[in-house]
């Protein structure tokens, strides 16, 4: 969990344990040349999960893991289902940036370790504030934690940036660091 609030929309989040997948496992180019979501049909591994945010209860603050692992998911702050924008399906989740985040409970089973894994989601940011947590697997307050993190718009990298990193307990190692990836009010595929 992160101390940063999420402001924007998120849809169709996949966490695959044990396999490194490609973006094309979750999306494809349609007849108009647009990159669009497609149904993922593979396994989630023993510790993965899938959040569709299409539970059918708009403005609800409960969330369901639709993988066979059925992990518990809770919302914090003002995070809720929304029909205002979604790349597909019936809803996405929305946050207003004030302490909004989802927490998935799986204990040590969610520790990715050194094996392959995939984190995938669709994101639509409302603002480009600094340090928007898209995924933060670290323990609360553990800045150099050894679990993966994905942040949008890190001020040290640049506006619209994305970075993914691992910590080693005393420093951060960047896996991805790209500038000018995100724009406001546009769906972006992160995989």
Descriptive account of the structure:
The protein has 191 residues and is an all-beta fold. Helix content is 0%, strand content 39%. It contains no helices and 15 strands. It has strands at 7-17, 27-29, 35-37, 49-51, 62-64, 72-76, 80-82, 92-96, 101-105, 117-125, 132-136, 149-152, 162-167, 172-178, 188-190. Strands 1, 4, 7, 8, 10 and 15 form a 6-stranded antiparallel β-sheet that branches. It has a 4-stranded antiparallel β-sheet with strand order 11-12-13-14, with no helix packed on it. Strands 5-6-9 form a 3-stranded antiparallel β-sheet, with no helix packed on it. The radius of gyration is 16 Å and the shape is globular. The mean pLDDT is 81.
Strand content: 35-45%
Question: In total, how many beta strands?
Answer: 15
Helix proportion range: under 10%
Largest sheet properties: 6 strands, antiparallel
N-to-C series of helices and strands: EEEEEEEEEEEEEEE
General form: globular
Tell me, rounded to a whole number, the average pLDDT: 81
Number of helices: 0
Distance between the termini: 19 Å
Low-confidence stretches: none
CA radius of gyration is 16 Å
């Amino acid at each position: 969990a992160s101390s940063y609030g999420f402001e924007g929309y998120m849809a169709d989040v996949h966490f695959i344990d044990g396999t490194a997948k490609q973006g094309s496992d979750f999306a494809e180019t349609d007849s108009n040349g647009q990159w669009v979501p497609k149904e993922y049909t593979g396994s989630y591994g023993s510790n993965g999960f899938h959040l569709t945010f299409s539970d059918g209860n708009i403005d609800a603050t409960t969330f369901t893991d639709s993988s066979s692992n059925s992990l518990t998911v809770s919302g914090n702050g003002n995070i809720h289902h929304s029909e205002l924008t979604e790349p597909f399906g019936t809803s996405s989740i929305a946050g207003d940036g004030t302490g909004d985040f989802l927490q998935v409970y799986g204990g040590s089973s969610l520790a990715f370790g050194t094996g392959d894994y995939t984190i995938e989601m669709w994101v639509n940011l409302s603002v480009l504030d600094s340090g928007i947590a898209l995924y933060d697997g670290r323990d609360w307050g553990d800045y150099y934690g050894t679990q993966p993190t994905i942040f949008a718009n890190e001020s040290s990298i640049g506006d619209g940036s994305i970075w993914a990193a691992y910590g080693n307990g005393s420093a951060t190692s960047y896996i991805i660091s790209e500038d000018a990836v995100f724009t406001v009010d546009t769906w972006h595929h992160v995989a």
